[in-house]
Design brief:
It is built from 4 helices and 18 strands. The chain is α+β, with helices and mostly antiparallel strands and about 230 residues long. It has 2 domains: about 170 residues, Rossmann fold, CATH 3.40.50.880; about 45 residues, Golgi alpha-mannosidase II (Immunoglobulin-like, Sandwich). β2, α2 and β3 form a beta-alpha-beta unit. The longest helix has 13 residues. The chain is globular, with a radius of gyration of 20 Å. About 10% of the residues have low confidence. It comes from Bacteroides ovatus.
Length: about 230
C-alpha cells in the first residue's frame, strides 16, 4: 500500500535472523476482534515493539457486532485514546489535515480522536466542525509505542509519512521505491521485483554480489543479491 523499504542494516543481528522488524502494521482489523488480540498486542509493545493501527481497528467483536461499550473500546487503553467518533465527507468534498506542517487531503473516513493524558498528537484536522482535533496520535507503552492513524486517505500519502516517522524514531532507516516495485530481505538474500509495465532502476550497493538479474528491472523482472554486511549475521 505504501511503497517503502526498510533497510535491514539498521536492525540488530537478533532481529535480522528472526525477520522481525520490531514494527507491526495492523490495518483496519475491525471485525472478529477478540480481547486476546489486544492482550497480545499490549505484551508486544511493552517488550519494545512499535505497533501501528489505523482507523476502525477494534470496532467490532468476533461476530462483527459493535461492542456494548464506547466505539472501539478494546483498543482505547492500548492506543492512548480517551474517546473517539468518526466522520465521512461527500465524495466531492475534501477535508484537510496538518502533519508536521504539511497539508494532506481526506474524505473517506476520519476518526476524530480525544487522546488520553500522556498521548502525543501528531496530526490534526484543520477544518470542519472538529477543527483542531487529533487525527493521528502516538502513545508510549512500556518499552515500545503505539501509533494510531485515524484517517483514511485516497492517495495514502499521510499514512506513508506517519509510518516513515515511526520507523525513523525507532532508529530504522527507510528507502522510497517506485509504486509497484517490491524489495525485501529473506534468509540473507535481498530480492527486488518489478510488478509495473515499465523498466525500473533500483539501488544496489557496489560491493553487493548480484546472483540473479541486475539493478535494471524489466517489467515482471527480478533481481537477487547478497551484501557483505549480511555475512556476520549468518
Amino acid at each position: 500500500m505504501y511503497p517503502m523499504h526498510v533497510k535491514r542494516n539498521d536492525l540488530n543481528a537478533k532481529s535480522r535472523m528472526k525477520g522481525d522488524f520490531h514494527v507491526r502494521f495492523r490495518e483496519r482489523l475491525r471485525v472478529k476482534f477478540p480481547w486476546s488480540t489486544r492482550q497480545r498486542w499490549t505484551e508486544y509493545v511493552k517488550k519494545g515493539g512499535h505497533l501501528i493501527l489505523t482507523c476502525r481497528t477494534g470496532q467490532k467483536d468476533r461476530d462483527a457486532k459493535l461492542w456494548e461499550a464506547p466505539l472501539a473500546a478494546p483498543i482505547h487503553q492500548l492506543a492512548g485514546i480517551n474517546s473517539l467518533y468518526y466522520d465521512h465527507l461527500p465524495h466531492n468534498l475534501y477535508g484537510k489535515i496538518d502533519f508536521e506542517g504539511k497539508e494532506f487531503a481526506w474524505n473517506n473516513w476520519g476518526d476524530v480522536l480525544t487522546p488520553a493524558a500522556g498521548t502525543d498528537v501528531w496530526a490534526v484536522y484543520t477544518d470542519q466542525f472538529y477543527k483542531g482535533a487529533a487525527s493521528v496520535i502516538h502513545h508510549k507503552l512500556g518499552k515500545g509505542t503505539v501509533t494510531y492513524i485515524g484517517t483514511d486517505t485516497d492517495d495514502g500519502k499521510l499514512e506513508k509519512e506517519v509510518v516513515r516517522r515511526v520507523y525513523t524514531e525507532a532508529g530504522v532507516s527507510t528507502e522510497d521505491l517506485p509504486y509497484g516495485v517490491v524489495k525485501e530481505w529473506r534468509d540473507g538474500f535481498y530480492i527486488a521485483l518489478n510488478y509495473t509495465s515499465d523498466i525500473q532502476e533500483i539501488v544496489i550497493p557496489d560491493e553487493a554480489e548480484v546472483l540473479i538479474g541486475s539493478a535494471r528491472l524489466e517489467p515482471a523482472g527480478v533481481v537477487v543479491w547478497k551484501e557483505k554486511s549480511d555475512n556476520k549475521h549468518k
